[in-house]
Amino acid sequence: MAAPPPLPSMISQEEFQAILSRYPMVLRAVSEKKQKPNDRTLEEIDDWRNGLSDSTKQTESADDGGRRLDASQVKDIVLWKLKRGKFRPTILPLVSSNPVGELESTVNKALKMSLPSQVTSDGSEDDDDDALAQVSLVLNVLVKLRGIGPATATAILSSVFPETIPMFSDEAFRWIMMDQSGTSGGWNRKIAYNAKEYSEFYKGIRRLCRRLASEGEVVDAGSAEKVGWVLGQEAALGITHPAKGTLTKPSRRAGAKEGSEGSVRKKGRKQDDALSPNSEPSKFVTSGLETIGSLSKTSAKRKATSAGISPSLRRSKRNKE
DNA sequence: CGCACTCGCTGATACCGTGC
DNA sequence: GCACGGTATCAGCGAGTGCG
Predict the structure, then answer these.
(1) Of the four listed, A10, A91, A217, A242, which is most buried by Cβ atoms within 10 Å?
(2) Residue A295 within a domain
(3) Which nucleotide C1' is nearest A266 CA?
(4) C1' (C10) to CA (A3) span, angstroms
(5) pLDDT in tens, A295-307
(6) Would the Cβ of A303 be found within 7 angstroms of any atom in strand B?
(7) Is residue A141 part of a domain?
(8) What Å value separates CA A121 and C1' C9?
């Protein structure tokens, strides 16, 4: 059974950097695993995305209108997100169903809004509340688009502002939340993808960045997210790293779930049951904080729907079981 | 009545079981 | 041991429901 990952509240600078340095290796492993012929690799898209922050900075100065993304860049970010995590086939068509003009104007409006600055050692938890309020306002704008929920919205923002905005990735979220629940929820923890959970995640990231900064290691939000992602992927892939950087990968079959929680997971399929099925805490809780797009997509999106991509987003009899 | 929230649905992929 | 087939997965949508 793999050793539990270092908790965000405990991780040392050295461990943080060591894990971050494994990002390319893990990315390659994930990329190879999912690679299909005639398709851009995850590595290629990730590389492109890493340069996006700088390239948008240049257009910013030239344009005086804030950083900008065009529709194809937005779609590529979505593609990157899907390749990097679980693939959601409905998402890309949904995003593509937004009129180009609307997509670009909405995204660029969001990119122009003010965002918190990078965490330093002399911030406080109060600053985190302010920062969160700002981020929530921006997310509110983005989630009005079809196919863009909180997770995808943070993927877009984090691509342009990696210093300050962490992407709401499953792995990073679960890692950050291990501080609260211990490793028991672990890599199987259920995620509700709502405002409350992103708030907790965001604050957890800020807390981690601030602590490391106070110890002399300034890290950005994007790096913190990458560390969580690496740990989560390594657990999922069964990759162990005996301190000398040699990757060991079990065969797909055997290893798939082993190592994550290391425990028995027979037919119970994937990671779902971390919480009891029924106790799913009201999916779209509106916490006391500003609600991200209220996360209960109501009127705003519904109006824009008629030209939807799939007439078939209707009920059918596809009951499990 | 209007708004917030719940819950069933979508579909390509990943994973598991089974048969050869 | 490998190939194939069946099915759960999960972010987001939107109709339905309940509450103020």
Answers:
(1) A91
(2) yes
(3) B16
(4) 28
(5) 333 333 333 333 3
(6) no
(7) yes
(8) 40
Minimum-distance residue to C9 (CA–C1'): A270
Does A91 have pLDDT greater than 60?
Answer: yes
Q: Are residues A232 and A267 in the same domain?
A: no
The answer on A31 and A119 residing in a single domain is: yes
CA–CA separation, A257 and A271 (whole Å): 9
Residues A173 and A312 in one domain: no
CA–C1' distance A87–C11 (Å)? 9
Between residue 207 and residue 266 of chain A, the positions with Cβ below 7 Å from nucleic chain B are 236, 252-253, 256-257, 265-266
- Contacts of A211-217 with C-beta under 8 Å, sequence gap 24+, read A211/A9, A212/A13, A212/A16, A213/A119, A213/A120, A213/A121, A214/A121, A215/A13, A216/A13, A217/A13, A217/A16, A217/A17
| Band of pLDDT at residue A61, cut at 50, 70 and 90 | low
| Strand nucleotide closest to residue A86 (CA to C1') | C10
CA of A147 to C1' of B5 (A): 20
A57 CA → B11 C1’, Å: 37
| Closest nucleotide to the alpha carbon of A269, via C1' | C8
pLDDT tens profile A242-284: 544 344 444 333 333 333 333 333 333 333 333 333 333 333 3
In a domain, A222, yes or no: yes
pTM of the model: 0.73
Residue pLDDT, tens place only, A125-183: 666 677 777 777 777 777 777 777 777 888 888 888 888 888 888 788 878 877 766 54
CA distance A146 to A110: 15
Half-sphere exposure in the Cβ direction for A115 (13 Å, CA):
22
Which is nearest to A23 in space by CA: A318, A267, A229, A310?
A: A229
Residue A294: CB less than 7 A from any atom in strand B: yes
Its domain, for residue A198, covers: 13-237
Domains in chain A: how many in total?
2
Find out whether A120 and A218 touch, Cβ atoms under 8 Å: yes
